[in-house]
Amino acid sequence: MRLDKFIATVTDLSRTDAKRAIKAGEVTVGGSVAIDAQLEVAADARVELSGRPLRAATARYFMLHKPEGCVCATKDRQHLTVLELLDVDNRESLHIAGRLDIDTTGLVLLTDDGQWSHRITAPKAHCDKTYWLQTAEPIPAETVKQFERGLFLHSEKERLKPAQLELIDAVTARLTISEGKYHQVKRMFGAIGNAVIKLHRERIGALELGALAPGEYRALTAAEIAALAA
Fold first, then answer.
1. Domains and CATH numbers, the chain
2. Are 97 and 59 in contact (CB under 8 A)?
């Protein structure tokens, strides 16, 4: 990676600011002053800015408990974004792998590894996602079989893939789907004449939200990263 891009990736500096720092002699690589912004540096290179070591530009992976009223976006003028909940360097380079609506809570993944997130969110990945939900009206028992067969949604040409619905009581349930169509869970219940009034994502693949409180986040372990991309 070019030296100026490396610095911009691991700090809050822009590429222009990084070039200025390099030109001013504030950057060393392997202990020697580097004045060429186009110098290629390895991920494990020892780079310092004004005597401060910079971390290697390795990919980052986080899970976050998205609270209600927070949006899955990088910027928003009216609402708090999930990125603003993270106290990490260069958070603008992270993106959301599997977005949730503003009124939906639960598990969200954030990373700067595009290939990894694509393996989770791509339609061919068939990554299971489990939601806890509450509906406006009682859920008929036959809905379990309807979802197992796969529904046709309005404006969709193909039947949905089979989904597993576990009824908890008259108006609450746990639903597992393997697709990620736009507003899919809400549209599924809308197709049977019901409305979802509360929706919470508990699980993506083998990864469960666990005890994280709303607004909290943590880094994924190496095992979790590998399991989600398997």
1. 3-53 (3.10.290.10), 59-125+210-230 (3.30.70.580), 128-204 (3.30.70.1560)
2. no
